[in-house]
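#dry-run=false #mode=assembly
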Amino acid sequence: MVENAKDVKEFNVVVIGVGGQGLLTLAGIISEAALKQGYDVKMSELHGLSQRGGSVACQIRFGEKIYSSLIKPGRADLIIALEPLEALRAAKFASEKKTTIIINTHKTKPVSVMVSNEKYPSLEAVKKELKDFVKDAIDTDATEIAIKATGTPVTANIYMLGIASARGLIPIEKAMLLESIKETVPEKYFEMNKKIFEVAK
Amino acid sequence: MHKVLLGKSGKKVLLLGNEAIVRGALEAGVQFASTYPGTPASEIGDTFSRIAKDAGIYFEYSTNEKVAFEAAAGAAFSGLRSMVSFKHFGLNVASDSVSPVAYVGVEGGMVVVFADDPSGWSSAQSEQDSRCYAKFVHMPMLEPSNSQECIDFVKIAFNLSEKFKIPVFIRLTTRVNHTRGVVTLSRSVKGDRKAKFVKDLEKYNNLPPKIIKMHADISKKIENIRSEVSEKSELNRVVNNDVSGELGVITSGVSFNYVMDALDELNIKLPVLKLGITYPLPKKKIGEFLKKLKSVIVVEELEPFLEKEIQAIAKDANPTLKIFGKYEKAEKRGGEKLFPIAGEYTPKLVLIALAKAANKKLDFDYDGHMEKYNKLQIARRFPVLCPGCPHRTTFYAVKKAAGEDAVIGGDIGCYMLGVFPPFETLDFILSMGAGLGVAHGIKKAGLTTKEGKRKVVAYVGDSTFFHAGIPALINMVFNKSNVLVIALDNRITAMTGFQPHPGTGKTGLGEPTEQIKIEDIARACGVKNVKVVDPYNIKDMMSTVKEFLEKDEVSVIVAKRQCYLLEYRAKRRKGIETPIFEIVDELTDAEKKAIVEFGCPAYYIDEEGKMQIDKSMCWGCASCVQLVGQGKIKPMEK
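#status=ok
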């Protein structure tokens, strides 16, 4: 699928969700795999205050030569959103010309909805709003699928990476991604992660 | 094995900027490292903590940045290479000792790493630009742009420090600290120096009148570093040197990356003077660069630190030069203000400014895109205390017991989140330990009026208490205050990533040590009313707060319970299941109100308007059970 990785001048990935969903792990896996593929890589992550249940966006850029780790508005090639509200927040990075977004439909409602009467949009509303921002949107109940297949919701992120890989949405060979998963997750969980990665279509 | 310990020379790996700083220190043969944790610099210390034993070096989490700096200075006085790291505010704390150490100088190389945080991603106090410290204390300063440079610059800094016998700053910003990038590893050098402090009163005595000579000497040292290092070093180099044109760029640190990205997107080449040593600046080199240009754009975040110097250099080197930047005087000279002083730079901001200066059109309507995006209504997701956080029950109880009128001082740590809804319970948050100090002032200021009757409470975290709370507490006792101090003792420095502190019972090397108790210190400071309360016990907390607020002297409540995130993680690791709670009986309006005021993120209102507990979010702490009638919230049956 990836014939000549070196031909990719730059590829921009946003991994977005809520602190605690394994975003840093997923972003790390993609970055390490990109390095294996021979790309120059930069990955931006934020620690500290930004992590306590807040919105977290990791940005990964890889290609021939990458300077900044930050993706400009409208310049993402792929967005992996682990939560629908955060998918909407990621619209900033998206463009109708080239962005594909993969959305986990499992909702995590922010406390603001309960305590300050802010509105949590319906999935339909999120998808409708996103239409103006992306080229393609794929939604999946990754959390439910992960629970069914592996008994835990934490593998939802790997399942979503599996979708990106299976559909050729990321210019990194599947073998590189798997190797990177193997090096990242604890050994006893590798088979489980491999399984959910390969189940994805 | 941690990647920073890899022996393979020439291997390419991905390292976080903070990890690369540690790798650079290892490649330079560092033997002593100290820190007080503070984001965005925390992972420097954490990486040292993880690898110090294997690498055969000493590492400690010190009680605060001043002590950390002094410890590293002691090691450098004894001939070892030492590194101290902290966030920008840490440099404020350390600064009292930084200046005299710069004066007396060091034997072993000493590198002082600090991290600024433009836009305050993890900083509550201010958006300070700490580069001015270099000028202020006369210490050289290097600014890497990426992880590879973090390694390279640290090694250069150690050599520079040793050659000129002066501590050297490495200045980072959040986006360098927290960006992962590809680095090529070189050989690690195992430091094997034997420490020896050599007595030398002539060298270490900095009393007046010698201080005047020392001041003159350090100024001369800086001039030598300017001519011998800064003017000659490849760290200050022109990128695209072969390009001649009317417009040039001067930049440093993370902004360099945005400039290179922008040139790429605009498909133009401009000469770029990249400054890796930003103090002392290579004035001649800058002058030579400016001479060839008609205009220059200065790209730096926060204060016009470089731009002011460039203005001055241009006066002689190129008086008609137009300068594009952020300093008022830019406009007077036919240039333009293209950048704000406040806020972090973004690739988009730099791109638009460069396009303007270079008179180029953009092929994407960024402003139009952002306008469209900003029209979206997206519910905020502000950071919250974790499920089971003992601070939540404390906030809830104290708010109820102290009443709306009480003045409540906040401080630095996870409990800053008490400023957000539903608590909104902190009247001010300033700096480490300031909750106590300012609360005391408020109490004293109102003493002769009705204001003096007002209840004043000061929160302080456990690590913060050891860091800067103790002098403020002693001051209250000494000066007869009656503030109620509530120490939120969750046994760890939680916000920055679970570093041990003097109350934890473990050092940064993982060795067991004395557990210093806040309640013992409070009593030793002369506080008469001291009580340790389990914060999960809302009733006990409320009655203690009410009792202590009636006292005429200082009181201290130690709300002691381990950080629940740590406890929960430990349980999961051990395979211990935690119950998941559910609402089994109709809640009254008052009970629902209490739950909302409690603000646990596991609660939500479902589509039918019914209050529910999210199964994936409940960590089984059971603290919410106290808010409702008996049996209404119960663990789910398996």
